Amino acid sequence: MIKVSRLARLSLSPEQAEKMTAQLAGMLEHFRDIDALDLAGVEPMTQPYPIKNVLREDVEVESLNREEVLGQAPAAESGRFRVPPTIGFDV
Amino acid sequence: MSDNTTLPNGWQLVVGLEVHVELATKTKMFSASANRFGDEPNTNIDPVTLGLPGALPVLNKHAIELAMRIGLALNCKIQPCTFHRKNYFYPDLPKAYQITQYDHPLNVDGYLMLPGDVRIGIERAHLEEDTGKSTHFGGSSGRIHGSDYSLLDYNRAGVPLVEIVSRPDIRTSEQARQYVAELRAILLAVGASDAKMEEGSMRCDVNVSVHKPGTPFGTRCEIKNVNSIRSVGRAIDYEARRQVDLIEGGGVVRQETRHWDDASGRTETLRTKEDADDYRYFLEPDLVPLAPEQSWIDRVRLALPPLPAARREMLAELCGVDKNGESAIVVVERGQDDYVRDVVANGGDPRRSIVYVQQAFAELGPKPKVPAKDLAALTILERDAKVTSTQAKTLLTDLIEAGGGDVAAMATKRGFEALDTSALEAMVDAAIAAEPGAWKKYCDGEEKALGALVGAIMKASKGKADGKAVTALLQKKAKA
Amino acid sequence: MKKLVEIVAAVGGGSLTATSVLEEHLDRIKAREGEIHAFNLVTAEQARTDAAKIDADIKAGKSAGPLAGVPIALKDNMCTRGIETTCSSKILQGWKPPYDATVVGKLRAAGAVVVGKTNLDEFAMGSSTENSAFGPTKNPLDVSRVPGGSSGGSAAAVSAGFAAASLGSDTGGSIRQPAALCGVVGVKPTYGTVSRYGLVAFASSLDQIGPFTQDVRDAATLLEVIAGHDPLDSTSIPQPAASLVSVLDHGVKGMRIGRVTDLPEGCEPDVLARLEAAFDAMRDAGATIVDVKLPSLQYCLTAYYLIAPAEASSNLARYDGVRYGNRVDAPDLNAMYAATRESGFGEEVKRRIMLGTYALSAGYFDAYYGKALKVRRLIADDFASAYAKVDAILTPTSPSVAFKFGSKTDNPLAMYLCDVFTIPTNLAGHPAMSVPFGLGADSMPVGIQVLATTLGEQSMFKVAAELERAS
Question: Does residue C75 carry a catalytic annotation?
Fold first, then answer.
C-alpha cells in the first residue's frame, strides 16, 4: 500500500493508510469473483467501437494565449511555470 | 582519434544505442500547435500540450509518414501498431504520462550497415511524444541537486519523436560513432529530421556492458547526456574501462543509469533501479490503432531518395575512390555527390573532381554556384599538365570566388602555364650542374638533399614547374 | 415548466423572448437553489447577456438556432472558457479553462443559454453527489434524499425547473441513475457519438456526455444537436448523428423487447413492480417480450471497478499543482505533489486512484486490469447474442428509489451496487436511457432503463417514447 501510494503521489496518514488498506482489501476480495471465469482465449476489449487510423493533417493552429494560461498557474515567472526543485531526481 | 576500446585481458565491449529523433513536422504529435525550436517559452501551447483537463490527442499524419520513411530506410518491417501510456510524475511531463508505443511499435526488425560491411540490427523504431523543458535555478552547479527552483517551458512538449533502438551488436566505440553518424545522414537524406545533436533534435542514450567472449553479456549501464558524436566515443571508452576496472577489482556492475559529464570525461550515477518507477503501461484509451495501408507504405518506399550508403558506393565507383574513405563520406554528407556526378558528366577527371570538391567546397552547400563545366575544365587542365597542381589550387579559389568562369582564360591572365617535360628536364639538369654537392649527397642516399634541389628548381621556374613532376624526374635520374 | 421543444418553438416563432424564458428559470433558481444546491456556479449575468443577444438577433431577422433561448445547465466537469470549472474538487477550485468543450461550443452555436455549472460527485466518482467537495445536492422531490450521482446537480436542475435541460456525463450510470432518482429523462448515448473533447476525463473508454430533459422528445432534440463526429476526439465515431426525433411516434408494434432473466439481485420489490408494469405496457402496445440471458452480468461490477479506477488513476495524475489548479507548497517537488494531492482530493477519489494504481502495477496487471478487459469482452459478446434476438432491453435503472443522505456513505461497496444495472452498457459502449415510469416506495419516482445495441438509438427512443406515453 505504501508503494502504491508513492506511485500515485498520495501521502496518506497512518490511520488513512490503514483504513484504505482494509477497504481495498475487501474490494479486491470481492473482485476475485472473476477468477471463477475461464478466460483462456478471450481477447481483451479496450475499445467499445472499432475505429482505426484516425489522423490529422499537419496544419498549424494558433497557440493558446500564454498570459491567459499562466494567469491560471499556481506559480509562474518569466513566461514559464515555476516549481520547487526536484531533489533526488534525474536530468 | 584512435579506437581506444581495446580492453585489457580479453574483455569485450557490448554497446546498444537508443536514439531519440525529433521529427521535422510543422505541428506536434498529438495536437496542432507549432513544432518549432527557439520560440519564446510557452508560445506553442494548446490544451493537449499542457495536459489540461478534458484534452484529447489526435495523431499527426505527417509524423507517421516521416516515421515510416525512417523505418523503411532502416530496412524495418512496418506493422499495425498501438499506443500505450507510460505513467510517471515529472513536471516536464504535462499529463503525468507519456504516450508511446509498447508491445506493438510501428517499425521492427531492421538493420543499418556500417563501413566495412558491419551490420547493426535495429530492434524497433517507434513513435512517442517529447517532454517539455525544465531549467533549474539556484544551487552552485546549475544541475539539479541543491537548486532553488525550476522553470518549465512546454513548447517542446508533444513534439513528435521516433525512438530508434539498436540491438546490442556494436563492439567498438568507433562503430558506435559511425552508427550515429550514419543514422544522422540517413535521417537528413529522407527529410525526417534536422538531427542536430546540439539543438537536441537528436539525442543518444548509450547502453554499455562488458563480458569475456563465450560468457553471457554483462550487466549494462545506461549513459545519458551524450550530446555529440565525439562524446559517444569518449563516454563508451570511459564506461567500458570503468566496468572492467570495477569487475577486476572484485566489484559488481550495478544496473543503473549514469550521467556523462563531458567536461570531466566521466560517468556518474544518476539513479539506480530501486528508484525506478513502475510505469504501469496500459493501452491508450484516447487513441485508436494505427494500421497504415499497404498503398501508403508503398508510396513512401517509392519516394525514398537514395540513401547515403548507396550514394557513397555510386560516387566511389564513379571516381575511383574508397566507398568508406573520407572523400566519399564528406562529399555525400554535404549532399554534393550529384554535383560531382555533373562535373564528371561534363568531362571532368573523376578523381580530381571529387578531390577538388572535397577540399574546397565545404561552404558551398548541395548546389554549388560554380558551373559543373567550368570545374570540369579545370580538372582537365591539371590532368593534362597544362597547369601545375599548385596553380590549379589557386585557379580553384579564383573560380569559387568568381562563381565560375573560363579557366583557360583565367590561367592565361595569371600567367600560369606548366612547363612541359623536356623543359623540366632541362631545368633539372641545370640544377644538378649548379649544385653538384647536393646532387652527390642525394645520390648517396641523403633524402634531405632532394628538398634543396627541388626548391632551387621551383624558384628558378618562377612557379611554373610542377613540384611533383620535378621530384619524380630527380628520383628517376638518381636511380639511373 | 416549459419543455425545451416548447421554448424553441416560442422563441424562434417570436411569441416569447429568450430573456423572459431565462428570467422565469432564474426566478426558480432564486427561490429554491439555496435549499437544493444544484449548482456550483450560477452564471446569471452572462446568461442575461447571451439571451439578450439572441433576442436582438431574432429581432434583426436572423434565423434562430435549433436551441435558441433554451436555458441549459452544464455539469461542472465540462470545460467552459473563462468560466470556473471545478469538477466539484478542491484541487480545481477557481480554475478557469482557456477553452470550451466541443459540446459547449455546439450548444452556444445552437443558441442555448447556459445558466450555470452543476454540482457532481468529485471528478464524477460516486452515485449520490455526496462526494462533492462543495456539499451535496438535494433531491428536489424530497430534500432528505440524494439526487443520485455523479451528475446529481444536472438531474436536480431539470427536476426543479432551474433549467429546461442539462448535460451530464455517464461512466457507470452517472446520467441514468440520477435521472431515475429525480424523475427526469437521462440518456447515455453510444460511446463515440458525442465528443469527449473538453469533458474532464474520468475513465476514458467509458465516459460519455448525454442530456437530462423533462421528456423523451426534448432528449431526442437535444441529443441530435450535441451528437456528431469531432475531429478533436480520436474515439469519435465517423458517422453523422442519427435522426431521433423523427422516430418518436413510430410506436413499438412488432418490436422485440428483451427481459433479462439472470438480472443481478438486490433490486427492491417496488422497483421490480414498475419493471413488470413496463413490460405489460410494451405488450399492450404491440411488442413481443423475449427472455434473454446475460451470464456475464454478475461480473460487470468487478470489471468496471477495475477498469474505471485504473484509467482514472492515470487521468488524474495530471493534477499535480504544476500548471493549473491549487497547489500546496513544499520545499521539494515530490513533497509538493503529495501535499497538493492529499489536500486537493477527497476520500473517494483517493480510494479509486489507489485501487486503479494497484490494478495496473507490475505483478498485478494481468490478475486485475488484464482480466477485467477480458470480462469486458464477455459482456459485449453476451449483449451481441441478446441483440440477435431483440431490438431493445428493459431493466430497472436503479435498484431502489432515491435513498436518504448518509445511508450508503460508510460502505463504498454498497454505494457501488447502485450502478449494477447501468454499468454493463458502459462496458459494452452501448446506448441506454432512463425514463420515469411511475412511483415506487415513499412516492419517489422509479426509472426504467431502455438499452439498445451500438448505434441503436432509434430503437431505444421508440421504446422510450412508448414507455413515456404509457407512464
Answer: yes
Partner-chain residue, chosen from B89, B150, B287, that has the shortest CB–CB distance to C317: B89
The answer to whether position C444 is within a domain reads: no
Percent of chain A whose pLDDT exceeds 70: 95
Residue C127 annotated as catalytic:
no
Residue A75 lies in a domain: no
Q: What is the CATH number of the domain that holds B426?
A: 1.10.10.410
B275 lies in some domain: yes
- Tell whether omega for the bond before C144 is within 30 degrees of 0, i.e. cis: no
Domain-ending residue, one of B258, B273, B301:
B301
What are the tens digits of pLDDT across the range C309-342? 999 999 999 999 999 999 999 988 999 999 999 9
Q: Chains with ≥3 Cβ pairs under 8 A against C?
A: A, B
Per the domain annotation, does C318 fall within a domain?
A: no
Looking at the complex, report in whole angstroms how far the Cα of residue A36 sits from the nearest Cα belonging to chain B. Answer: 24
In a domain, B425, yes or no: yes
- Residue B23 inside a domain? The answer is yes
**Domain shared by B347 and B292, yes or no:** no
B90 interface with A at CB cutoff 8 Å: yes
* pLDDT tens digits for range B41-52: 999 999 999 999
Q: Is B22:B160 a contact under the CB 8 Å cutoff?
A: yes
Residue numbers of the domain that contains A31: 1-36
Residues in chain C with CB shorter than 8 Å from the CB of A7 are 357, 361
At B419 the pLDDT is: 66
Whether B467 has a pLDDT exceeding 90, the answer reads: no
Domain count, chain A: 1
Q: Is A16 a domain residue?
A: yes
Which cell goes with A44? 481483451
Q: What's the average model confidence in pLDDT over B400-412?
A: 86
* Tens digit of each residue's pLDDT (9 = 90 or more) over A30-86: 888 888 888 888 999 999 999 999 999 999 999 999 999 999 999 999 999 999 987
B137 found inside a domain: yes
Query: How many helices (H) and strands (E) are present in chain B, helices listed first?
Result: 16, 15
List the CATH number of the domain containing A5.
Answer: 1.10.20
Q: Taking CB atoms and an 8 Å limit, are A82 and B151 in contact across chains?
A: yes
* B292/A contact by beta carbon, under 8 A: yes
Assessment of whether the complete model's pTM goes beyond 0.95: no
Residue B365 Ramachandran class (φ > 0 left, ψ -120 to 50 alpha, else beta): left
Q: How many domains does chain B have?
A: 3
How many residues belong to chain B? 480
More confident residue, C123 or B115: C123
Mean of pLDDT values over C379-397? 97
| Mutate: best of B85, B286, B287, partner C, most C CBs <10 A | B286
A5: part of which helix (H) or strand (E)?
Answer: helix A2-7
**Residue C335 domain-assigned?**
no
pLDDT at residue B152 tops 50: yes
- Same domain flag for B255 and B323: no
Domain housing B366: 318-387+396-404
**Average pLDDT value for chain C:** 96
Q: Which residue in chain C is spatially nearest to A7 when comparing CA positions?
A: C357
Catalytic residue (choose from C75, C106, C138, C462) = C75
Q: What is the CATH number of the domain that holds C125?
A: 3.90.1300.10
User: Does residue B5 surpass a pLDDT of 70?
Assistant: no
C407 is catalytic: no
Q: Is residue C229 part of a domain?
A: yes
C320/B89 CB distance under 8 A = yes
Determine whether the interchain pair A49/C191 forms a contact, defined as Cβ–Cβ distance below 8 Å. yes
CB-CB under 8 Å, B145 with A87: yes
